[in-house]
Design a protein that fits this description.
With 257 residues, the protein is of the alpha+beta class. It folds into 2 domains: 109 residues, Ubiquitin Conjugating Enzyme (Roll); 115 residues, 2-Layer Sandwich (Alpha-Beta Plaits), CATH 3.30.70. Helices cover 30% and strands 21% of the residues. InterPro entries: Phi-like, UBQ-conjugating_enzyme/RWD.
């Protein structure tokens, strides 16, 4: 059933933005039929002697992503094995709940279900290290580049360090690419970055870390005094960083200068 009013406008706008990012991430693997509201992901195999691709087909309800959840129409491995049942079960994980943009998470989840020959092995990711009293409180700043930051849960996690009143200041930019800038007590910044790194990312690169620098370190200053803020664009990130030399470091770290 078609949506009307604000819900319909919101669903259409959010889906359009999500599809734009997906097509940028997987330009040769994603197709979308607006008439059937079906999204197809084709995953090429690396297995020798096989030319077939693994495919995932999802039908998107009219209310998605405001409400409802994508439906698995087909899930087939490169050896033509039916993966629909295990795919549906895997999609019931709590980190891909209705009400959020989840297509990128579902594609990654499907990739994980494929055989090792179909997908490169994942690198081991360390679990977050609990923060012990008295650990490093020296100022530290990190700049992280992400292939994309779209999933609502990840965006919320980036804005909310697990420790209350953590003393971290910073900015995040969702979308494609995603950018995170955190500055504060070293041990707490390390703990927050470790917690984020443990999530599933297509790319998670620390582009700048003051631990690698020899000069005297200080907490970066931002246009807001406390906490972590989400901004819309790369220029907003630059404007949020107050010190000119820190702006230059940010731009050079992400490859703009």
């Amino acid at each position: 059933m078609d949506l009307a009013g604000e819900d319909g406008n919101e669903a259409a706008a959010r889906l359009e933005a999500e599809l734009e990012l997906l097509l940028a991430m997987y330009p040769d693997a994603i197709t979308f039929s607006s008439r059937a509201r079906e999204l197809r992901y084709s995953h090429p195999t690396n297995a020798p002697g096989l030319k077939a691709t693994a495919t995932l087909v999802l039908r998107l309800p009219d209310a998605y992503p405001v409400r409802d959840f994508p439906e698995v129409i087909s899930a087939v491995g490169s050896r033509k094995e039916d993966l629909r049942s295990v795919t549906k079960t895997a999609f019931e994980k709590p980190d891909v709940a209705p009400g959020e943009e989840v297509l990128d998470a579902l594609v990654l989840c499907f990739q994980e279900l494929l055989s090792p020959q179909d997908s490169p092995p994942e690198q081991a990711v360390p679990h977050p290290t609990p923060l012990s009293p008295g650990r490093d409180v020296r100022p530290k700043t990190v700049i992280i580049w992400l292939h994309h930051l779209l999933n609502t849960n990840k965006r919320k996690l980036a804005l909310s360090p697990s420790m209350s009143d953590s003393g971290i200041v910073g900015v995040t930019k969702p979308g494609y690419p995603g950018v995170l800038v955190f500055s504060g007590p070293g041990a707490i910044v390390d703990s927050h970055v470790s917690e984020l790194r443990h999530q599933k990312w297509q790319a998670f690169e620390v582009r700048y870390d003051t631990d690698d620098e020899s000069e005297t370190k200080s907490t970066w200053r931002f246009s807001h005094d406390k906490g972590i803020r989400e901004v819309e664009s790369m220029s907003d990130v630059v404007q949020a960083i107050l010190e000119p030399e820190h702006r230059e470091l940010f731009l050079s770290s992400i490859g703009v200068k």
